[in-house]
Amino acid sequence: MVQKADTVGARIRYWRMRRGGMSQAVLAGLAGVSQPYVSQIESGRKTIDRRSTLVAFAAALQVTVADLLGQGTEPGDPARESATECVPAIWSALIEIEDGERRRPTCTPEQLAADIERSDELRMICNYPAMARMLPGLLVEAAAVGGPILARAAYQASTCLRHLGYRHLALSAARVAVSAAEGAEDSAWMAAARFVYVQSLPIESAALAARAADRSLSELQADAADVRVRQMLGQLHLSAALASTVEGRSDVARDHLAEATREANSLGDPADGGGFNGCGFGPTNVGLWQMSIAAEQGEMGRVIELSRTLRPQVLAATNRQLAYWLDLGRALSESGRRDAEALGAFVQAERAAPIPFTLNPLARDAVVTLAQRAKRRAVSDDLRLLAGRMGIRLAV
Length: 396
Description:
There is one protein chain. The protein has 396 residues and is mainly alpha-helical. Among the domains are: 8-69, Orthogonal Bundle (434 Repressor (Amino-terminal Domain)); 79-185, no CATH class. 71% of the residues lie in helices and 0% in strands. The protein has 22 helices and no strands. The chain is globular and about 60 Å long. It starts with 7 loop residues before the first helix and ends in a 7-residue tail after the last helix.
């Protein structure tokens, strides 16, 4: 049914066979799951819905989660390949900045400000390949100025690189952002940079991510009179809640979520849909993170229940709308009895943010699973078309 074996399940099987032909039963024991579950994952009949399960499989197979997701390594997608061509130059710019080298600026302050605004507009609509083409020059020019200008450009770079699957470079960019913001003693950008640092950490480092968020919350709380700082502290509470959930500390996650909810109710949704740095902190964004946390806890009914209370379109960042539809679609498909509704949600996710939806390995797996389950029936035209746009070739 599916001709292109680039799913998470296919990679799990590949690494299992590389480990001396490890059996499914042995892998199941090491990962703390059942052998039938491993079989369903490898065959594409089920998807992995929890980050903690990905971490368990990666540890059992002695690889990284990125290896299982195929992030930043697989050719074939035009959007990824377009961005990949720019990655060496971005890497070189980050190395130069981290080594303390600064070139003389070649553009006016007005042009630099306009370029940063343009890059931010591309971030808000998730056009990461176009961002990647701008970033080498933008980073070097921003480094010549330093301070919040560099923090903002490095934040954008970290976000772009993370979504393209280059987490190691996203982490480097986040560190540049933190250093620039701290050097300028700008609390709002310090909070934003700390947030993107936490976001750039690999899934395996959930405990570190939670500690880093906690430390930032403690250090920056004194500056919470600034609404921009309050918004970013709220984002840090949300990231700490998700990281704590992955780590298995649901009580800590609950406390962070309660703090984020209290702050969001006090601030309300940003009038422009973005707020400081376009993060969109407010009740709607808290609800979207609650959906992701419920999915991580395996509470798919709760994901669907929360979805009925939210209107993600009030937020300007299309990646938040993508998160809503993707989490909802995966929750609907979990039982195998609401696949038509799940497909509708995935189509909405693609419409909201086509590039990151196509690049998202878990979205690809979810669409493959719908196709595998439909093989005894006719695959609908809508599913076949969606799969085709994602580069997934289905047998005729």
